[in-house]
Target: DUF2642 domain-containing protein
Amino acid sequence: MKKAYSSFIGKAVTVELTGKKEVSGYLIDVGSEVLIIFNGEDYIYVSSIHIRSLRVVSVDELDIAEPTSGPQLEQEDELALRKILTSAKGVFIEIYLTGNQSIHGYITSIMNNYFTFYSPVYKTMYISLQHLKWLTPYSGSHSPYALGKDKLPVNPSQLSLARTYEIQLEKLTGNLVVFNLGLQAESIGKIEKVESNIIQLITAKGSTVYLNLQHIQSVHQP
Model:
């Protein structure tokens, strides 16, 4: 990917992502795992595994100003996803996973295949790395929803973290959880069992559903 897209750095582009989403702007930098795009206001760090296509568009079609400063999460070497996430720890960011909802807050920890995220709305969340489409750092000293520091704790959760997403979900067995922001009724319930990447979930009415862990983008406790 890096070799294929590097010649387009500085050009206006539109990137189509999985889930029929698009990001348009000036292509600022290209790595093996991340593209940086300036959309006229913010720098967007796009995970390459979700890119379906990239096309160059005219500057007139884009109709945005060129950047006057560099990206906030600068990297001295390869643009790798984990390095970007590490640079973003403690920085207020917007992340996008799926659907039409973005999540605002900050990264607190980065594990093998997931990271923990604190959101003023959803509190502590566990988010799969493979489902992160993009992240956008806040510019300046803004905070989510203009909240004060007392509403954005530095250490939001005392729950110990497992090295992998699968084991972390196992640790939540017996607890009420919300998967994928609760966008579907069968994504809210009590975890009964996690085995072989299948989650046995008890819904509000007591029925049992079996969820494929590979399709779990996020989990948080209500």
